[in-house]
Design a protein that fits this description.
This protein is of the alpha/beta class. It has twelve helices and 19 strands. Strands 1, 2, 3, 4, 5, 16, 17, 18 and 19 form a nine-stranded mixed β-sheet that branches. The radius of gyration is 21 Å and the shape is globular. Bound molecules: zinc ion (ZN).
């Protein structure tokens, strides 16, 4: 499977050019003049940046149940084309991944597709209905070895259930990933509550609906000494709460999506539901706070919240349209634009926020390791000088709901390797 590959002249983490020799599924050598093994393939990588394979903590692959939106095969193809070597598959499928059986099914489908490791996230509550705990222990003990649990799409709003879930996962070092959305404060909400929602006459979604849950859950995690991960942080106030929780030494981590790093709520003025997402796009001040928090480490990582939807669920009026955006194929380029292009993060920082930290939060062995001899040969080659206009028709995802359609973004993923085997070469699927 994984022969030998010599990547010549790439810049690891954007630093000085080096040759990278991949052999037997690991990085065999990295330095100025690594020799190719016998009969090895060579990639001329002048000007390309080498990063460890990206890890997504938050992907909706939709299978089983909504194969009209995405399948494990198409979603992992999109992931590989975006430079990812591992994704965490959210549990809100049909049926919900709330048993060992469904979690193992998703895990096996990922192995069969072979494009990217698929690590199932288990539901916190049965059917993500929020009334009783799912079989967390059985999922943890299954072949899928589930460690991250989330009802994402819905909030675990019951404080007693949240406390019990946090307590339960301590036994096997798990983490509860919360979709922080106070349900009563967001009934009928369509977009960020503020000046724009007033102008457009759409029901607003107040920042406090997110911040109140995050504050409560940080306190609960501290109270029981367990690990909380906050999904898709979207407001400046949420950042302040997470900064405070971290200053106390509590086990709290957080993610931000690429779209919340680049887009703002004024886009809703188009009434184009491609900009309808949960949590909603916020204000320029929120975007600035999120970028700063990702740069200073208050927010640990970028996670896509890739949420594919078929045309009929998106190409309708705003009020009836589904929430969500695709993101796997554009994530690295958006982070390039929002964080590297603005000088807030270097490429080593990008590797940390998109590979090392998400792998660590997801308890994912074999990913997020440094580009060094002995590490798994899972990496991405990226051309920072390229740029083009995003064309959803060219995407491998089964769905087309990217908010970046028609937007010029920098960069291009040229190649992705998973344990020494190329999944993407010359920007196209290699298998
Ligand atoms: Zn969510």
């Amino acid at each position: 499977m994984s022969g030998s590959w010599l990547i010549r002249g790439a810049r690891p983490l954007g630093g000085d050019p080096a040759d990278i020799l991949l052999d037997g599924g690991v990085i065999a050598e990295i330095g100025p003049d690594a020799a190719a093994g016998p009969a090895g393939d060579v990639i001329e990588a002048d000007g390309l940046i080498a990063l460890p394979g990206l890890v997504d903590l938050h992907t909706h692959l939709r299978e089983p149940g909504r194969e009209d939106a995405e399948t494990v095969a198409t979603g992992t193809a999109a992931a590989a084309l975006g430079g990812f070597t591992a994704v965490h598959a959210m549990a809100n499928t049909e049926p919900v991944a709330d048993t060992a059986g469904v979690a193992e099914q998703v895990w096996r489908l990922g192995r069969q597709a072979g494009l990217c490791d698929v690590q199932p996230v288990g539901a916190v509550t049965v059917g993500i209905a929020g009334s009783r705990l799912a079989e967390l222990g059985a999922m943890a003990d299954s072949a899928a070895r589930v460690r991250v649990f989330s009802d994402d799409g819905r909030c675990v709003s019951d404080a007693v259930l949240m406390r019990r879930a946090l307590e339960y996962v301590k036994a096997f070092g798990g983490v509860i990933a919360q979709h922080a959305q106070e349900p009563r404060l967001t009934e009928g909400a369509q977009m960020n509550e503020g000046e724009m929602s007033g102008l457009l006459g759409l029901t607003g979604w107040p920042a406090v609906a997110e911040e109140a849950i995050i504050a409560r859950d940080c306190l609960l995690a501290a109270h029981v000494g367990s690990a909380l991960h906050v999904c898709h942080v979207s407001t400046a106030g949420s950042v302040e709460i997470i900064r405070w929780a971290k200053s106390k030494g509590w086990q709290v981590t957080a993610e931000v999506t690429p779209h919340h790093l680049l887009l703002t709520d004024d886009l809703a003025a188009s009434y184009d539901p491609v900009f309808k997402v949960n949590p909603p796009l916020r204000t320029p001040a929120d975007v600035a706070a999120l970028r700063q928090a990702l740069a200073d480490g208050t927010i640990d990582c970028v996670a896509t919240d890739h949420a594919p939807h078929p045309l009929e669920d998106k190409e309708t009026e705003w009020g009836a349209a589904a929430f969500g955006m695709t993101g796997l194929e554009t994530a690295l380029r958006v982070v390039h634009e929002a964080m590297v292009g603005t000088g807030l993060l270097g490429w080593a920082g990008v590797a940390d926020r998109m590979s090392a930290r998400p792998a660590s939060i997801g308890r994912l062995a074999g990913h997020g390791q440094p580009l060094a001899p002995g590490s798994p040969a899972s990496l991405v080659l990226y051309d920072p000088a390229a740029s083009d206009v995003v064309d959803p028709a060219a995407h491998a995802s089964k769905s087309r709901n990217t908010p970046f359609a028609g937007m010029r973004l920098p960069g291009r993923v040229v190649a992705t390797f998973l344990r020494g085997s190329p999944t993407v070469l010359d920007g196209k699927l290699a298998r």
